[in-house]
Amino acid sequence: MKSVKILLAVFCGAVVAVWCSSGPLRAGETEKGASMAIDESRLETAILAGGCFWCVESDFEKVNGVVSAVSGYTGGRVENPSYDDVSRGTTGHLEAVKVLYDPAVISYEEVLEVFWRHIDPTDSGGQFVDRGEQYTSAIFYLDEKQKRAAEASRAALDASGRFDKPVVTPILEAAAFYEAEAYHQDYHSKNPLRYLFYRKGSGRDRFLENTWSREVAVPDDEKRYSRPGEEELKKRLTPLQYRVARQNGTEPPFDNAYWDNKKPGIYVDIVSGEPLFGSLEKFESGTGWPSFFRPLAPDNVVEKEDSSFFMKRIEVRSRHGDTHLGHLFTDGPDPTGLRYCINSAALRFIAAGDLEKEGYGEFTHLFRQAAAN
After folding, report:
1. Model's pTM, two decimal places?
2. Of these residues, 12, 20, 55, 341, which one is catalytic?
3. Is residue 55 among the annotated active site residues?
4. Which residue ranges form the domains of the chain, and what is each CATH number?
5. What gap in Å lies between CA 167 and CA 275, rounded to an integer?
């Protein structure tokens, strides 16, 4: 069997999608399955509109603490609207997403921070390429506590100097929420290439990159991750690490540092140190590479179209280090259905007990909460 693995490793180095995408375990069959148990009685809901619900749903499903994100319609004048009705702009509904989250992991205020970082809150006529009332942004509050939090969050964003124009996203009382048709749910997973082409062409990511890469009001912790020069990296990294991280290489399956690592902790970029994935999102995929169903820090994980080796795939890179991490597939377990197939050589593991001394103390509470459950 050892010779078979070596042949597969060489083959996978050239066409990683063929080998990586074969036969992963499904939800309930993975080591993550047991740890996915959640006390649903403590979950809370946020309803947010940010233009195309495919994009908003996809963005939130990658956020730690979010249990589900459902696309739908809300705020309109008629019952049970269809997509055709809403897209014509005649019903008053907005495309929106109902986000179910665990407040022990992520607060409502933090949910709003994620929301702001993925929309244009200064646009009153739509979002990016999608124009019309049905594509405008809004926060729909479910109680007075959410209303106050949303108003404070919007005021802070408006005063931050991040935008040259005023923040106009309205804060509205929640109305009936109608789930969108089944083909709209998890569209980014069901149709990854079409979704990627749409998203790239929409101008959303280009706007967000330009807006949030500016130095205005950027917290210090976002400035601490950077990529050293190539000569420094060649000295610091092993030949395999350099080939994977800087030359888009692929390491052998079942013969790498973290494919079967089950210790609690986080995985950071070997180049920049930025946090990327966590053990709470790791599952056994059967592929021989570390696999995660979503990132620990979604803003640090960049997805790009990859047309190498005569196939279309989605490459995963780190934002600050521009490190080649691996590829994204749509055969992962619930709740996202995604599988981030990542090279161990692109990562450094930090055990949960070492997070404070290593400078990643902001993630300690995740493991305390998991241990308490």
Report:
1. 0.64
2. 341
3. no
4. 2-29+228-372 (2.170.150.20), 38-212 (3.30.1060.10)
5. 30
